[in-house]
From TrEMBL:
GO terms for molecular function: DNA-binding transcription factor activity; sequence-specific DNA binding. The keyword Repressor does not apply. It comes from the Bacteria. It comes from Hassallia byssoidea VB512170. Coiled coil: none annotated. Keywords: DNA-binding, Transcription, Transcription regulation. Gene3D superfamilies: Homeodomain-like (1.10.10.60). Residues 229-327 form the HTH araC/xylS-type domain. Pfam families: HTH_18. This is Helix-turn-helix transcriptional regulator.
Length: 330
């Protein structure tokens, strides 16, 4: 069963609690699940939101972005979300955001559909900010990514949705500090503003570093390399039941030829090789950290045949699963 809601429906089901001029909480509790959004309003038109949700049924929320020219920096800590954006030039009409990765996008004045998977806890931290935040610091923007430079000069430039890669250890530390803010009132505002700015610096710097790496590729455009990183993120999220090559290529907006060639050139492996490597690494963790039967571990990481799993494991690591477990003392 799939629950379909509009933004208006969602608002009517939610309980909006205004704590003070700087904080707001929106909660939903209904028969198909719960969600909450904790908002903090900071200086420089910065808004910080901690979103959490878990639904017992699949949920699709239809929403519309207004025409305000703000950017969204999103950091997925758990769960994920599929979004469809029909007929938006320059943006994939069907993309996924997954746990452990961060995104930056500029999508004013569009219609979108957010797809939530049943029985999956989602937690993400989002920062909403305007391009003029950057111009308040200096007048030279040559070191910024080109899309941000264009937005500063003209906020009506084309929309984009930019996957920026895995959340780095430095980002993860700041995210943890935001979630565990030890202060109240004025000190809380000061602390969170500092952490939000630090997180934006880390994200924009990551984008810049990515662009330097992208320049090494002669065959692929920068946006195509980003799509390949997005493909990796999808495979990480759906390891036990990964999409087919054609379906994965469709999700990231490349053809299957570029997907296969891109994995070889950018990551040094094939799509299947990458999935196999991830599965076997997960199997190592289960062998080391649990007492599950080897057949059950094989099944959990996506192999129905225990003998085939054992063959691949030994080829990869030089020992059988049983010998590896015994060596680790389990």
């Amino acid at each position: 069963m799939t629950i379909r809601l509009t933004d208006t429906d969602f608002g009517e089901l939610s309980n909006d609690v205004q704590h003070n001029d700087c904080e707001r909480k929106v909660e939903l509790s209904t028969w198909f699940g719960q969600s909450s959004s904790d908002w903090t309003f900071l200086r420089h038109n910065l808004e910080l939101a901690i979103h959490e949700s878990e639904y017992s049924e699949a949920v699709i929320v239809e929403g519309e972005h207004d025409d305000l020219p703000f950017l969204t920096s999103k950091f997925f800590l758990s769960g994920g979300m599929r979004t469809t954006t029909p007929n938006v030039p320059g943006v994939s009409d069907d993309y996924e955001e997954v746990a452990g990765y961060n995104y930056l996008f500029y999508l004013p004045d569009i219609q979108e559909f957010e797809h939530f998977t049943a029985n999956q806890r989602k937690q993400c931290i989002s920062i909403y900010w305007y391009p003029d935040l950057l111009s308040s610091f200096q007048s030279s923007f040559e070191e910024l990514p080109v899309l941000l430079q264009q937005l500063i000069e003209n906020p009506t430039k084309q929309r984009f949705h930019q996957p920026l890669g895995a959340i780095t250890p430095a980002m993860r530390l700041v995210l943890k500090q935001i979630l565990q803010c030890p202060f109240r009132e004025t000190l809380r505002q000061m602390y969170l503003e500092a952490k939000v700015l630090e997180l934006l610096v880390l994200q924009i710097a990551q984008w810049g570093e990515n662009n330097l790496l992208l320049q090494r590729s002669l065959f692929f455009r920068p946006d195509e390399i980003e799509r390949l990183h997005h493909a990796k993120a999808i495979l990480n999220q759906k390891l036990q039941n990964p999409p087919s090559l054609l379906n994965l290529a469709r999700q990231i907006g490349l053809n299957d030829f570029k997907l296969k060639r891109g994995f070889r050139e950018v990551f040094g492996t094939t799509v299947c090789g990458y999935v196999q490597s991830l599965r076997l690494e997960q199997a190592k963790q289960l062998l080391r950290g649990t007492n599950l039967a080897i057949a059950e571990i094989a099944y959990q990481v996506g192999y129905e045949s225990t003998s085939h799993f054992g063959y691949l494991f030994k080829r990869q690591f030089g020992v059988t699963p049983r010998d590896y477990r015994q060596h680790k003392g389990l």
